[in-house]
Specification:
38% of the residues are buried. The chain contains 25 helices and 18 strands. The longest helix is centred in the last third of the chain and has 33 residues, at 448-480. Strands 1, 2, 3, 4, 8 and 9 form a six-stranded mixed β-sheet that branches. The protein is α+β, with helices and mostly antiparallel strands. A hairpin with a 5-residue loop joins strand 14 (262-263) and strand 15 (269-270).
Length: 640
């Protein structure tokens, strides 16, 4: 069955919230309701007639005989814990289906959060436990990832921030987690025993209220015999804490108090109360759960340790994203701003931390499914021969783009300087000229200048020929996943190494091209006419000089080809004669005359050199696939 919805289930130590996202939509997820409330206290109650109740209903329903709160923890073998978690999720799932807020079955995929400090084995064990609730499709993901995704898609993180380092500080009821996120990859930051949760403050308020209660001994007996009464009183302490931090200014007056209320019976009441003086005392008192450090001391130490951990890796986060219900406590933000000062880092508390994780989990689920489908489409393109076909189809245009610049470059850097050297008597014989011209041609074809020329032409070829055809393949993928077409385009340019990855085009051209140049220059035109004059007797003195007068006198028959080779190898024509036969004007004429022939020769050699271009098609195809894959990884960030 096709997955239609992703359900973000934030089962928190203190509160629970659920959100739903439609997989094929980019609309924001919606919060779901249980008992007509979007956010519930994490509570599970048993009623003899009504059965299991969750959330506020478990707290207010008369006749509840068992009540469990704050039961989220690392998975363990305690049967009571396992039964509580399983039953809570099972009941929630049933209520969501009964009020038609989810379809149920395999059309819904549940994503449940856990602290990022949990190990992979903890997550796997927790996931296994939760699946016992009868939910067919369920995954456990770090809550920090959900917080990041919610910030990303709600527009609270700019694109450049998404690609940089973001530190997420998740202050929950049972733990405080620090997670570094770099381009959607989360890295938990460990800082010792993580028991720094805001519920410790609730317990401190509870202990303080109980210690000062006039019926302390009686209450202790009641709590021992009826644990659900203690649970209710702890929730009253939590309410007092939340009311205080929601409006600290109001309770700065010593006569003003944030209060909670719980009635044990008609005569016994439990009324926790806090104001600024009391809260400062509680936050600064040593707590045995924190190795006799205060909550504020422990939080400050944790933030400092997290920063030092990052500094050892050379990382300064651009954003510190604060989430979790306890991030509403103003002093936590002040400590973070003090330790991560601007302008290097911005501290951003989430405005709705109680909804953030549920919404983020629904987004994570949708993103995972859509990102997986996106990768599948991109890989389908890679697995086909379309990339290679595009490159192969445009090889003739690349040859045309390379021919003229290479021809001009060889003339300017090999032929013309070689002829100038012979003209100025820097080269002794025509054979020396042939050798020198070969070296010049080979040196230039292998030079950085020639490589730059080839790179520039390859880039021009890619931009004008390959890019449009490539876009016709990638644009439909972008439209399907509702991301900008530019996400899979190379509009900002492409690394020359991708379209010319150190190929042996120059080597392939060397032998035939240099031979052609020598043949045209030495065997034709003005220099050839010099040999002709010598061989036809118009310059007989050079022959005598080469072979000796006695040999000629003896009537030695000379092989015409042999004489030509000997003259080319040994004849050192005087400089005054050279300038006469080969002036600057004739050098220009030679270069102009051979340019079209050299163009044609280069074009033919490139066209027939199939091996070099088969190599080019394979290597450019692979390099382009790697570059496109990197673009796809970046584009995944934009998927909603």
């Amino acid at each position: 069955m096709e997955i239609l919805e992703t359900i973000g289930f934030d089962l928190g130590h203190g509160e629970t919230a659920v959100a739903k996202a439609i997989v094929e939509s980019i609309e924001p997820p919606e919060m779901l309701e249980v008992n007509n409330k979007k956010i519930q206290v994490t509570a599970l109650g048993w009623h003899p007639e009504l059965g299991y109740l969750v959330g506020d209903q478990a707290l207010i329903q008369a006749g509840v005989t068992q009540l469990k709160i704050t039961f989220k923890q690392k998975p363990n073998n305690d049967p009571t814990y396992r039964e509580t978690i399983r039953t809570f999720l099972e009941t929630y799932y049933r209520l969501l289906k009964e009020n038609k807020q989810i379809k149920g079955g395999e059309s819904d995929y549940f994503y449940v959060g856990c602290p990022s400090g949990w190990s992979l084995s903890d997550r796997e064990e927790y996931q296994k436990l939760l699946k016992e609730a009868g939910i067919p499709l369920l995954s456990v993901v770090p809550e920090s990832r959900a917080a990041f995704m919610q910030a990303k898609e709600a527009g609270k993180l700019e694109y450049d921030k998404l690609k940089s380092s973001v530190l997420i500080v998740d202050i929950g009821s049972s733990t405080t987690d620090f997670t570094l996120v770099k381009s959607l990859h989360e890295i938990p930051i460990d800082f010792g025993s993580n028991s720094l949760g805001a519920s410790l403050i609730d317990k401190a308020i509870f202990a303080r209220t109980l210690a000062k209660h006039e019926q302390k001994e009686l209450l202790e007996k009641v709590f021992a015999e009826y644990p659900h009464h203690q649970a209710r009183c702890e929730l009253a302490c939590r309410k007092a804490k939340e009311d205080y931090f929601s409006n600290e200014q109001l309770f700065s007056n010593p006569q003003s108090f944030a209060r909670g209320f719980e009635s044990i019976n008609e005569q016994i009441y439990f009324i926790p109360q806090v104001n600024k003086l009391i809260m400062e005392d509680i936050l600064n008192q040593p707590l045995p759960e924190l190795e006799d450090k205060s909550w504020i001391q422990s939080f400050r130490a944790a933030v400092i340790e997290g920063k030092e951990n990052l500094e050892r890796q050379g990382i300064v986060p651009t954003i510190v994203l604060m989430t979790g219900g306890a991030s509403r406590m103003k002093f936590t933000r002040q400590i973070c701003e003090e330790i991560f000062p601007e302008p290097h880092t911005q501290v951003r508390p989430d405005p709705e931390p109680e909804r953030c994780i549920a919404l983020g989990l629904a987004r994570v689920g949708r993103w995972d499914l859509r990102a997986s489908a996106f990768k599948k489409e991109v890989n389908k393109l890679f697995d086909s021969d379309k990339l290679k076909d595009i490159i192969k189809r445009h090889i003739p245009e690349l040859i045309e783009l390379l021919t003229k610049p290479l021809s001009d470059g060889l003339i300017e850097n090999a032929i013309k300087p070689g002829l100038k050297d012979w003209q100025n008597n820097k080269v002794r014989t025509l054979a020396d000229l042939e050798t020198a011209m070969k070296k010049r041609a080979e040196s230039w074809l292998k030079s950085d200048r020639a490589k730059l020329l080839i790179n520039n032409q390859c880039l021009s070829w890619f931009n004008s020929k390959i890019q449009p055809d490539l876009a016709s393949e990638t644009d439909p993928i972008c439209r399907q996943f509702q991301i900008p077409r530019s996400s899979l385009r190379f509009e900002e340019g492409i690394d020359p190494g991708v379209v010319n990855p150190e190929l042996s085009i120059g080597d392939a051209l060397l032998a035939e091209t240099v031979a052609f140049i020598v043949n045209v220059v030495i065997g034709g035109g003005t220099l050839a006419s010099i040999l002709l004059l010598i061989l036809t007797g118009h310059l007989t003195w050079p022959i005598a000089f080469v072979y000796g007068a006695s040999a000629l006198a003896a009537g030695m028959e000379l092989n015409r080809k042999g004489v030509k080779e000997v003259i080319k190898t040994n004849m050192d024509i005087p400089s005054w004669l050279r300038s006469s036969f080969l002036n600057d004007s004739k050098i220009e004429n030679i270069c102009n005359q051979i340019n079209p022939d050299l163009d044609k020769a280069l074009r033919e050699q490139l066209t027939t050199n199939q091996e070099a271009f088969d190599e080019l098609i394979a290597k450019v195809g692979q390099s382009l696939q790697n570059a496109l894959n990197a673009k796809a990884e970046e584009a995944i960030i934009l998927i909603q």
